[in-house]
Amino acid sequence: MRRLIRVSADLDAESLLRRTGERVTPARRRILALLLASPTALSQQELLHALADGPAIDRVTVYRVLEWLSEKGLAHKIAGEDRIWRFNAASHRIHQHAHFQCQRCQRVYCLEHIQIDWQPQLPDGFRLHHADITLKGDCPSCSR
Q: Has 110 been labeled as part of a binding site?
């Protein structure tokens, strides 16, 4: 079953990368596939660990690919309370959603099923481009 998920994520990653019109590199494909297959947002360190079982990709390349994926709208960055950036594959179905960060294990989950209908009243001249909503508590694994 794990192998099927990995193959599906690889195919999805390749398809999404091709839509950008830019080069589909092995590093971009592998990193995006990992993000697509992961139920939680991943840090650069977690990605490096997950990538260790294949051809070597150095941490600078991982960083650059994550930034590129974010710029292209294929991934989004989530700032953790521990000041570590985590990345998740961007869902094009739902653009605004909340995140949940577990206070015990520090995992970050995208809560795409929670609708965010929040529009702050900003002073004249201000224009909102992005807002982060992070809920904090204990995840199901840590609550047991």
A: no
